[in-house]
Amino acid sequence: MARVEPNGSNPDTSVADIEKQIALLKADIADLGATLSDYGQKQQAILKSTAADRIETLKAKGAENADALRKQVESAYAGAEDSVRNHPAASIGIAAAFGFLVGLVSARK
Fold first, then answer.
1. CA–CA separation, 84 vs 94, rounded Å?
2. N or C: which end of the chain has fewer CB within 10 A?
3. Are 67 and 75 in contact (CB under 8 A)?
């Protein structure tokens, strides 16, 4: 740790000079605080803007994904409907087997 020891070379240092230096340090600290406050406010604005942009991007992606999923579901439904129309007997058999399995599982509980 550094130590400052008076060496007697400047005995004319007065209390007034020290008070001026302290006042100057206080002013510098106040300016530093104001600068940090301004910096913090600017960073907050930047982060808000970035977050808002990210939210909008995610909303757009979510809407696109929902639309794509809706199209896939509609396609699968149309495929199942076509299969039932083309093979009605097989569809009835599959539905009956599925109903039987659901009945077995629910009866065991």
1. 10
2. N
3. no
Tokens of 12: 């004319």
Q: Are 83 and 91 in contact (CB under 8 A)?
A: yes
Cβ neighbours of residue 91 under 8 Å, at least 6 residues apart? Answer: 83, 84
Q: Which burial class, exposed, middle or buried, applies to 84 when counting CB atoms under 10 A from its CB (0-12, 13-18, 19+)?
A: middle
How far is C-alpha 68 from the geometric centre of its chain's CA atoms? 24
| pTM for the whole structure | 0.49
Closest-CA residue to 46 (of 54, 56, 57): 54
CA distance 14 to 1: 26
